[in-house]
Amino acid sequence: MRQRLGQVVLEDGTAVAYASVGSGRPLVYVMGWLTHLRLGWELPAERALYEALAQGCRLVRYDRAGCGLSAAVDRPASLAFELEQLGAVAASVGEPFDLMGASMGAPVAVAWAAAHPETVRRLVLYGGWARGPELSPPGVQESVLGLVEAHWGLGSDVLTDIFAPDADRATRVEQARYQRECSSAATARELLALSYQLDVSDLLARVKAPTLVVHRTGDRAAPGAQAEALAAGIDGAQLTLLPGRSHLPYAGDRDELVRVVRRFLGLPVARRRLEGLTARQQEVAALVAQGLTNREIATRLHIDERSAEGHVERIRLRLGFRSRAQIAAWHSAHEGSK
């Protein structure tokens, strides 16, 4: 797929860059804290998420002011400003759309759906929250904000560990660098502070669109209680909890997240293929399920022990698991469902 770039201009002259990929019914995606349309498209895992979501529909996402391809502005971050930017992007779509908000984008999507119910067909909230002040204790929030402001390099490293705790070191380094390239330290701090301030709990009852709340059970950035609050506050909302600790939607078990979202939106869902594992990884997962050690797996497959260890680690990261026991249980459950 190729993404098509464009921009919308707000009444005050603020230019907001957006990208469109795929064709068909529109799905507007309100992304999380810091984004970069071009650099994100160049990251294989992130691009794979967008391409999978865009199969059979037109995925539209955008960089909020001060991030990525959208220029910095003097206006302070606020929910009103967020909705103004989303409104301009929505106007460019020109028809009712499905709306998905991830992380910080989830409360923004809630506020939009509550205020403009006629524009939203279905609503998906991933990794979001109803009450930002409850994401972590006030002291922790102030410490993180101070670190981002004082040392953006170290701050991005710490936040990457929170957002993608199961990623390998190389991936974490790449993700931290990506955050720093998305915005300045000042913008990053301001938007993170807004995340902690966003409280849409009083708007939930006004959401009329069919809603899916999907959340990973071990998410360290957004407690599961916040997903439960979103689902409880929106009439008829469906809550789906997925295993894993990654807050980033494209980290961990990305394929299962895509399947859940596409099924809810009424889009075709690809046949399950052992979560996209390679043929070799499927072999290794089966041997893990049999209780073999890395050395025994290496002997069985005629590879060295280090390679066997690498295969197990990649399987664990791919599925968003923390242990071999989870790999074994997952494989046994999958085989039993055939």
TrEMBL record:
Name the CDD domains on file. LuxR_C_like
Pfam families in UniProt: Abhydrolase_6, GerE
Q: Which Gene3D superfamilies match?
A: alpha/beta hydrolase, Winged helix-like DNA-binding domain superfamily/Winged helix DNA-binding domain
Instruction: Return the PANTHER family for the record.
Output: BIFUNCTIONAL LIPASE_ADENYLATE CYCLASE LIPJ, HYDROLASE, ALPHA/BETA FOLD FAMILY PROTEIN
Record-given protein name? Alpha/beta fold hydrolase
Gene Ontology molecular function terms on file: hydrolase activity
Per the database record, which ranges form the HTH luxR-type domain? 270-335
What keywords tag this UniProt record?
Hydrolase
